[in-house]
Write a structure and sequence with these properties.
alpha/beta; Rossmann fold; six-stranded parallel sheet; 13 helices; binds adenosine monophosphate
Length: 378
């Protein structure tokens, strides 16, 4: 992987920097700036080297240049962070000169997600060199992440992309032991690739969330009204067979009548779920067992909540795991998405060694798949 160290002298040159500023906005204000801050090391390093920057990002999934998908609030926010003006270029034909310029949402261009060669070429013509620092978009082959590269002579991964790749591949290649993977969330089929990868290298895999139920069903248990992905049962059975001794399933759980913050939580040691109830969280015994594994770990990877953590009566399991991950002396790596949201909800997100900025991308990388945006930077 080429890094900023391989770019050579970029003084006076214009660099097109693909960043991931796909941040949540509310009423035109940035409500979570983690992704913007995560790109600052690259932006600052390139500016110190004398480069002028054209920042390119997507925001959401616009269909037709809807104003709520404008990057204008992000440009304003970044200007405050870097202490310089950040002009917003409305399109590729009107990019002003300036030290830091941001292009309007690249998905306003219909060719972006199609990796359209003409758009890629027009993007490339705007820059002397290219840097991709958008880990959260590196698993997509789009014009601004893949196509553009062949039209710019000099390209590299930014510091965030570099750190993401080094950390995530590092925990598979040479982890401090024991390596404990915590995998939760809704669906087995979303996570089976990463479970398979961890079956090879991890010492222990802790399963939680709704995806426990296909595992239980494969063992012949009743799952009642629990969210239980039918297509997940077969992969779950196979993982259980391969992972004997490594895979841990919940030993108790918290049931409720419905997926609602008003549902009364019912703790149960019985794995079979009655027909009129659904499993909505891991139980206290499971939380304690999982916390002990996390405490004794050398490396912890976590992706996916242990239950319906958005609902107060069913958040305790995810909270217990989040607290254990925050407190352990192990190296802790958290895949983006809901686990990151849970840690933020509990105010523990600053106690993690590496919080990935890309949910889908981090899973793909751990599954051993190449990321298109990374491949072109070799
Ligand atoms: P994922 O996107 O696959 O990580 O899944 C996260 C979502 O799964 C969250 O919105 C949780 O509310 C939901 N979830 C986790 N466990 C359960 C459960 N036992 N029942 C229903 N939903 C759940």
């Amino acid at each position: 992987m080429r890094t900023l160290d391989d770019l050579g002298d970029v003084s006076g040159q214009r660099g097109l920097v693909r960043v991931d500023f796909n941040v949540p906005l509310k009423d035109g204000e940035v409500t979570d700036d983690a992704r913007i801050r995560a790109a600052l090391p690259t932006i600052e390093e390139l500016r110190e080297k004398g480069a002028r920057l054209l920042l390119v990002s997507h925001l959401g999934r616009p269909k037709d240049r809807e104003p709520e998908f404008s990057l204008a609030p992000v440009a304003e926010y970044l200007a405050d962070l870097v202490g310089t003006q950040v002009a917003l270029a409305p399109d590729l034909d009107s990019v002003p000169d300036g030290d830091v310029v941001m292009l309007e949402n690249i998905r306003f261009e219909p060719g972006e997600t199609k990796n359209d060669p003409e758009l890629a070429q027009r993007l490339g013509a705007l820059a002397d060199f290219y840097v991709n620092d958008a880990f959260g978009a590196a698993h997509r082959a789009h014009a601004s992440t893949v196509g553009v590269v062949e039209h710019v002579g000099n390209s590299a991964a930014g510091r965030l992309l570099q750190r993401e790749v080094e950390t995530l591949t590092g925990i598979l290649a040479d982890p401090g032991r024991p390596l404990v993977a915590i995998v939760g969330g809704a669906k087995v089929t979303d996570k089976i690739g990463v479970i398979d990868a961890f079956l090879e290298v991890a010492d222990t895999i802790l399963i939680g969330g709704a995806m426990s139920y296909p595992f239980f069903r494969s063992q012949g248990h009743e799952v009642g009204g629990s969210l239980c992905e039918a297509e997940g049962v077969e992969p779950a059975a196979r993982a259980l067979e391969q992972g004997a001794g490594k895979l841990r399933l919940p030993v108790d759980h918290v049931l409720g009548k419905e997926f609602s913050a008003d549902a009364e939580p019912i703790t149960s040691d019985e794995i079979d779920v009655p027909e009129d109830l659904m499993g909505l969280d891991i139980g206290p015994k499971t939380a304690e067992l999982y916390a002990a594994e996390i405490k004794a770990a050398g490396t912890v990877f976590w992706n996916g909540p242990m239950g319906a953590f958005e609902l107060a009566p069913f958040a305790a399991g995810t909270r217990a795991v989040a607290e254990a991950v925050a407190a352990t002396d192990a190296v802790t790596v958290v895949g983006g998405g809901d686990s990151a949201a849970a840690l933020a909800q509990f105010g523990l997100d600053d106690q993690i060694t590496h919080m990935s900025t890309g949910g889908g991308a981090s899973l793909q990388l751990l599954e051993g798949k190449t990321l298109p945006g990374l491949e072109v930077l070799q």
